[in-house]
Amino acid sequence: MATILVNGKKREVQAPTDTPLLYVLRNDLELSGPQFGCGLAQCGVCSVLLDGKEVRSCITPLSAVRDKEVTTLEGLGTRWAKQKGLTAEQAAKTLHPVQQAWIDEQAPQCGFCQNGMMIKATELLERNASPSLAEIKEAFTSGVSPHLCRCGTYTAIIQAVQLAATQMMGKREVL
Amino acid sequence: MIAHQKRTTKAPTDVFGASLSRRGFVKSGGALLVGFGVFKIDAQESAPGVGGNSMNAALPQSWIEIHADNTILMRVGKPDFGTSSVFTAYRQIVAEELSVPFEAITTVVSGDTDRTPDGSGAFDFLGGGMPNCRKAAAYVHQALLDLASQKVGVPKDKLSVKDGMVSGGGKTVSYGELVKNQKLNLTIPVRGELTSMFGLTVVGDPPLKPVSEYTVIGKSFTNSVTVSKVTAKETWVTDVRLPGMLHGRMVHPKTLGSKLISVGALDKARFPNTRVVVKGNLVGVVAPTEWEAIKAAQQVASGTTWTEWRGLPGTARLFQFLKEDADWKTTPIDTSKKSSGDVSPALANSAKKFSATYQRPFLKHAPIGPAVAVGDVHPDGTVYVYTHTQNPQALRSAIAHMLSSSVDKVVVRSFAGPGHYGRSNGGNAGSEDEAVILSQAVGKPVRVQWMRQEDFQWSTQSAAALSDVHIGLDAQGNVTAYQIDHYMPAMQDDRLVGAILAGLPTIPAPNEKESLFGLRNGVSDPWVYDGVPAVLERGHGTAQIGQHSSAINVGLRDHSLRTPVQYQQNFPRELAITEAARLAGKDPLQFRIQHAREKRLIAALETVRDATKWKPRSEPPKTENGERRGQGVSALYRGGTYWACVANVAVDMNSGRVKVEKMTIAVDPGIVVNPLQLKRQVEGGTVMGVSMTLFEELLFDESGVVSSDWRSYPIATMADLPEINVVLINRPEVGKYGQGSEAANALAASAISGAFLDATGKAARRLPLKPEYVQGLLKS
Prior knowledge:
heterodimer, A: alpha+beta, Ubiquitin-like (UB roll), 2 domains, 5 strands, B: alpha+beta, 3 domains, eight-stranded mixed sheet, seven-stranded mixed sheet
């Protein structure tokens, strides 16, 4: 049993502390953003932000996330609203610019991997507001493993990251 | 249920073979529902088999509903797998035939066996330009015109329709007003078998909207499902949670031919709430939580013993096995329709000749998420399956067969999930049957999630193949004779693997007498070089490798993967054509144009030539910074669409690493339905093609599949992404929309290998182009 902070809310969970965070998020908290892809930290579909850093929830035990903030795909809008100081009313109808760009660019095919792609994009754009093409490719292929897309949507993902970057720099209002 | 005419209140109106009837009046609302009448019942099929689609009579079995508020609902048996065709192209096609705005179709229901009418699967969405939804909409349009004609007192041919408003004789009436306060039913003619692989087909010839009047088809509409997927509001197959649902994990056999000797004892102290289920050679555990199920399955597996089996040639000996050991004599040879002329004398008399053998390895579909499904067997024998399959009705039939039950007792609901690329187009995605077996055993809903390793080792693969090519040239460098013999094991094994293990009924393994596709290796890459006078194309088939010697009749099971069979056949043909051009001293792109006669193909080749500023090579490639660059071209015709592709590659002459720098693809499908979605589909298919060409090869030993994860079965990452330029060629004058996305993966292999030849002078006749293989070629 543990208390964890997920998307800005404290949640008590009964699961044994060796349970991978992914199963806690999906089964105990009924979040649907992170997906099970490999259980081996080789694909990235299970990614979440842990204190703003992208981690693979399939190999992160529940015990490792105490005292840290977990952000899932569900929490990206709130995260953005908080960063921009939006009101609660505004926040409720806000998508994170990354999510909006994913829609505008029609990035997903099957979409199963896109949770991890959007989490990685958010992590990247929070530390590098205007990444180059090489920096985008580096972000999605370095770390514990590359983020894999079997449908081959990498071109659309890059275009969506670039669009999100311009939106996050305030060139376009996102509400 | 089939709409029975006896329930009508007056004689039905004939609508080009469909039947429009008024079933009553209602105080508010009103609708025109479209059901189906069976046009022709197959000999073995009983009427209840078709009519028994709906478990719940309250759910109308209807293709298209026109509502009084001018909204429209459509139902499609095919589930969408992410290419968006159900939610974009199909909506556009229905809106177009009805002459309503795209947005007027407010609801699209797809893929559930109790909520959709026609069956079939996620493949061939545009159906040669005539998907069911197009004809269904055309019938509805005519019925609405009949209603309007009665309402405004103007003959049908004097009416016009725009944005769902019918005008004539100075009056205007909306579709909604035509159906208001009425219960109308349109029965349209169909044929086929609902729960077969191909489902029902709408027949008859309702008038279709002239292409010149199109306003919706040809525009880039977005996919409505993208929003829910991107905002974590989609209910994925992975999110299905039923009351009392338990988590299952399988303990699969040690090899692809093993039988169970003994089941490991469950450590009840560690897993007090877990149950072990054993049925024949099927072993699974069921637990209240997923983590307990995973750990318990590992613990049970460690003590479970299996018989040994060594019936596979292993990756290293695969092509020797195919060449020397496999039986190609029993299965009838398929000869292509395009075969013509007398090849033997033409080859014998040619000025220059060339012969070569080409090899493609086994590939995995490799969905990014492993198979998962929930089975729920009720005490009364009804079965619900919650899954992610390309063909829900075919799965429904397979589950009913497994349980020796009837399809009326089985409902399959489909949800969003990882792409399958053909793996489940004949019904099962992997774990549905096991979920049903475990649910039946424990009396509760059970969710079975395969682990990554199981998905590689227990799913089907795309078959390996080899091809022998002979080409003859005359003194001027024209191809005078072309002969190709393709060899490939059978490739559509839709058996339920859990049913096989449990000893329950399932369809037979692919065989020549009983199965849908038999063992034949059909020539599936339509010949496009009509200027060649003598052509012989033959396909040779055999049984799946290891299946007959496997004690459980499994072995390496194969299944269609994007551009199935044609992928296996286009690579040898197109690389051989490039090699023939080289032998003739000709530019490979011009060489293709020279031998082609079809103007659309020539135009596609010219499009990629111009888009890449292709120049015939005037001097040998030079090594710069250890690299050599080359350009390659390929062409393909599939399902009404002409394709041409140019690849630009760089080869590291020391390490043997091949980098694809740019891919340019021209697509001529006739009418482009949705430019944005087609472009995205082609980009994706191209990346998959690059991945298959450079990296992908199933590794197996004598007992089973060795590839178990993304390290042992690597696929392309963003670092491998080339620049991709997709050029769409829209041809309204063709009057049809051809197939879209999947062929891009096939073109890539042949164009990239052509570019490799251009850069290095070496023909890489085996895939994938891994550095070790390339290094060996460069040294040869």
